[in-house]
Amino acid sequence: MLLQSTQISQLMPIALSDPPLPPKNVHVTGSDVDHITVAWDLPEFDGGSKITAYIVELKASKEKKYRALETLGKNAREYTAKGLTKGESYRLRVRAKNKAGTGDPGELEEAVVAKLPYGEKTHIVKCFDFDIIL
After folding, report:
1. CATH code for position 44
2. Is the pLDDT of residue 133 over 90?
3. Confidence band, pLDDT 50/70/90 cuts, at residue 7
4. Which of 41, 55, 57, 51 minimizes the C-alpha distance to 19?
């Protein structure tokens, strides 16, 4: 039995892509009693397709699930989560998105409390000692 091969005269390009890897180095760059600012670096791999957006998600310590705060443009590398509750603990994470889908999140290593930055003071009050002689 003789098998014949069929030759394809034109090959059609196939674009294969996956969702991007997580953004790297998600870290806090600032905080206060009502907001926390996070920044991140590009994912190690974009999945074979250009990144089109970043999605920032937040979860308060009392919540069970993350909620999307905002979808940012492809050039974004920082976001400030506003309207937070003083003293509340929060976890933030960032996902990269391309035409194939949304990738896994890059996360802060630990929760962050909405409070004054470490080492900063709000008010300085000086007290004076007086010697009272009776």
Report:
1. 2.60.40.10
2. no
3. low
4. 51
Tell me how far CA of residue 107 lies from CA of 14, 19, 57, 94, in angstroms.
33, 17, 9, 6
* Boundaries of domain holding 58: 24-113
Instruction: Please state whether beta strands 24-31 and 35-41 pair in parallel, antiparallel, or not at all (unpaired).
Output: antiparallel
Question: Considering the domain boundaries, does residue 122 fall inside one?
Answer: no
| Top-confidence residue, 127 or 30 | 30
Question: What DSSP assignment string belongs to 48-94?
Answer: TS---EEEEEEEETT-SS-EEEEEEETT--EEEEESPPTT-EEEEEE
Could you give the number of structural domains in the chain? Answer: 1
CA atoms within 13 A on the CB side of 40: 27
Q: What predicted TM-score, i.e. pTM, was given to this entire model?
A: 0.77
